[in-house]
Amino acid sequence: LESMNITITEDKSLPKAHKIKIRDVSKDIDKRVQLNGWIHRLRVQKNRAFIVLRDGTGYIQCLLKGDLANAYQTSQLTLESTISISGTIEKLPEGKTAPGGVELLADFYQVYGLAPAGDDSITNKVQENADASLLLDQRHLMLRGETLSAVMKVRAAFLKAIRTVYVEEGLTEVTPPCMVQTQVEGGSTLFSLKYYGEDAYLTQSSQLYLETCLPALGDVYCIQESFRAEKSHTRRHLSEYTHIEAELCFLDFNDLLSHIETLIVKSIDYVLKDPIAGPLVKQLNPSFVAPQLPFKRLEYKDAIKWLNENGILNEDGEDFKFGDDIAEAAERKMTDTIGVPILLTRFPVEIKSFYMKKCSDDPRVTESVDVLMPTVGEITGGSMRIDSVEELLAGFKREKISPEAYYWFIDQRKYGTSPHGGYGLGTERILAWLCNRFTVRDCSLYPRFTGRCKP
Ligand code: 4AD
After folding, report:
1. Assessment of whether the complete model's pTM goes beyond 0.90
2. What DSSP string runs through 210-221?
3. How far apart are CA 246 and CA 445, in angstroms?
4. Superfamily per CATH, domain 139-443
5. Which Gene Ontology terms of cellular component type are present (predicted)?
6. Which residue out of 158, 213, 225, 226 has the highest number of ligand 1 atoms within 8 Å of its CB and is therefore the one to mutate?
7. CATH assignment of 2-120?
8. What is the 259 CA–ligand 1 centroid distance (Å)?
9. What is the ipTM of this complex?
10. Where in the chain is the domain with CATH 3.30.930.10?
11. Is the per-residue pLDDT at 349 higher than 60?
């Protein structure tokens, strides 16, 4: 009852509190500031209340004393309510710990929006042990958690790092269309749609468009959503993912391999050096070891031998033979056992796409590569491309694809063909490895996979 009478008012004689973000608090020690954010944690006692405030740039503990703690308004606070809070930033005394090593000694606060308590409270909606699918329904609230938001920050730093490396390597960014009328990686995973009465698809890969840019812009890259109607429900397949793709000309297969490993090593290095993302990677994946150049190279035929020597069987439960696809489980067992990044090369023609160039010393295999990482397996797929019209048309024929819709892609080989190659890197896959997440779903803002298209 006593608390009912306490109203919270600002003492106008105090110095004006200037508005700052939590990431900047250490610049304002002993100054009066105003912070705005969400109540991340809350403990209200007599004479003392503790609020951990979150604003997307960081976390800070706010201490409310005396009347401020005892006021009725404070007793009504809930997790995820938004407040504007003013006070003095203080260095923590010896022996006390809190995020950033500082604390806000509050003298005033106002509520913007009170979040519900009771049955509708956030803790009831996103219980850690709840069914995964229920939590995915609450993805918009789950994103506020420390883990998911940390992964999203690492993701942002990684995409920034990738762009930095591409700039350093002289590639130009382009944005190819998402609505297309051609397939790249097999008809069975195409999402189709009606486009003003015509048949069209959501893009599986921007590769073919990137190839057409080479004579105009030189080496190019894009960071674009790709779509796959995957039937399989695995921890590394999404229906929509952020595809980092590049295409380079006048290079050979070895140049392509060195480009790919350099890109990965440099971009990871930038993420680890990033002042925000570096510590988050440490927190999410304490035993992460940065990859070193050069990556281990392994030819498909030697991988087959390795699998058989190590008693790993193919999908039919038999020994692997030349020509078998190395499916997810076997690939991961091999990669985890070897324990370092692998460039797996020279796959047989039959198990790879129509556009891949054959090796000049062995026409059974292609100048192709998958990059395999421990714990996830394949994160990148790439190859040198067929650069002769006749050979490309034979590839279409082999895969029973009618070439009409590809006239523009075929023209690429007519009007000044060139040796060229490229690759696609799955953003969520490399993040699953970097952030030690069990599934790529944890690395996507709003994951789409079989049966899920919400929120
Ligand atoms: O191996 P993929 O299918 O290769 C291509 O699409 C080429 N056309 C790319 C190119 O050469 N420009 O896919 C490339 C990468 C894979 O290594 C994987 O990391 C990711 O894209 N990926 C997926 N990620 C999440 N969910 C899926 N369903 C994925 N399918 C492929």
Report:
1. yes
2. HHHHHHHHSSEE
3. 23
4. Bira Bifunctional Protein; Domain 2 (3.30.930.10)
5. cytoplasm
6. 226
7. 2.40.50.140
8. 18
9. 0.99
10. 139-443
11. yes
